[in-house]
Amino acid sequence: MAGFDIKTIVGENYGGEQKDFIAALADEISRSIEDKYSALFKSSYPLIPVGVSNRHIHLTEKTFKKLFGQDAKFEEMRPLYQPGEFASKHTLTIVGSKLRAIEKVRILGPLRKYDQVEISLTDSIYLGLNPPVTNSGSLDTAAPITLVGPKSSVFLERGAIIANRHIHMTSGDALVLGVKNGDYCKVRIAGIKSTIFENVLIRINDNWRLQMHLDTDDANAAFIKGEVYAEYLGKM
Amino acid sequence: MAGFDIKTIVGENYGGEQKDFIAALADEISRSIEDKYSALFKSSYPLIPVGVSNRHIHLTEKTFKKLFGQDAKFEEMRPLYQPGEFASKHTLTIVGSKLRAIEKVRILGPLRKYDQVEISLTDSIYLGLNPPVTNSGSLDTAAPITLVGPKSSVFLERGAIIANRHIHMTSGDALVLGVKNGDYCKVRIAGIKSTIFENVLIRINDNWRLQMHLDTDDANAAFIKGEVYAEYLGKM
Lengths: 236, 236
Hints:
Chain A has two domains: 54-163, no CATH class; 166-235, Barwin-like endoglucanases (Beta Barrel), CATH 2.40.40. Chain A has six helices and 14 strands. Chain A has helices at residues 6-10, 19-37, 61-68, 121-127, 171-177, 216-221; strands at 47-53, 56-58, 76-79, 86-95, 101-109, 116-118, 133-134, 143-148, 153-163, 166-169, 184-189, 195-204, 211-215, 229-235. In chain A, a hairpin with a 5-residue loop joins strand 4 (86-95) and strand 5 (101-109). Chains A, B: It holds the Pfam family PTAC.
């Protein structure tokens, strides 16, 4: 039998006179499907495309309207690698507790259910902030930050985070890598400053494409320039 | 015998009637010394203090005088971790090919036989430079950069590098770790963004103290804050 016992599916008394034929047919179907897909699980060196996330902003529609005006239209500049996501035409100036500013920080689309600024530790030190390393959308301990737009500004009491290292993937990718949503893993970037990143969160959604997201500190530490692939090394 | 054969040192015909006594004495001396030192080599988890190098400048005396005036005195502000090295009281503004400047870049002492600016890849991108990842003092492929001081400025045709990850150590530390000068190794920094740094150069000098030097990109990627130790993982 090809990986299963037909009796466990249909009970002991299946098929009558055609019992042997049915068992052989089940075997054949199983074998042909297994042949097609099993190679997927034999990849011992899967490479993962790497995307570098520069500092960026997510906004609610309400906050966007406040900063850009009630009649402002939220417009796409260019699509991102993940289907449906895009860099918008809009940027803001962000200001932290040292009263230093970083200008032209881009807002990504689509608009979301929360306001969030994702920065690197390098940015945090410059701005004088102490944001947590956390998942996108986990804002309980996020740092205070001011957003300045052309029509108004807002002070977010809990707005700034350092996004953790994570890999977007489909449930098929997860099967290949042997991981589940919420697992943490290690990946390696080769090169003159080759680096193994630990505590990389697995995030699964069948609308996504396989891609690891690193911030600019991680990317610059590993001397990533241009198109780079990471080697998956296993779970933590 | 304790690790050696006395005959190989003094020949076959040593000691005459006192041969047995001499052999026993040699054994005893050897054993007592081995007992004292051999534990050193059993450390399987040696921790290495980590020092983070912010962008900085090394100058020759000639260039210092040009930038600060012929009568200027090169003065210490505070000592660094490595014996004899110090942060000076003097800073410069550096300017790259995008004509952007980074202000207040500190000169380290003592003065050296070459002019060199050590920056991170983050700095390089901001300045518009393409410096190599290389050893301090290896300036063959260094990037052009301008230094601006209070009395003059200089254009260094080959001045800017990204210093490679390295560990300063004594020959004793090298014995403990089982490495030699010029080897490359891996080390791990634990924490929320735990990271394994590869291609870390071993540099040996008995005037130094054991310390790994990382630049601010590496340090911020691993979320290093305050006093941190790295775990030695072995040679590359």
